[in-house]
Amino acid sequence: MARSLKWRSISLRSAKKTQDVFYFGEEVDNYQGGQLINHSGAWLAGQNGARAGLIMPGQPKVGMRYYQEIAPGVAMDRAEILSLDDRLLTPAGTFSKCLKTQEGTALNPWKGNSRSMLLESG
Question: Largest alpha-carbon pair distance within the chain?
Answer without folding.
Answer: 48
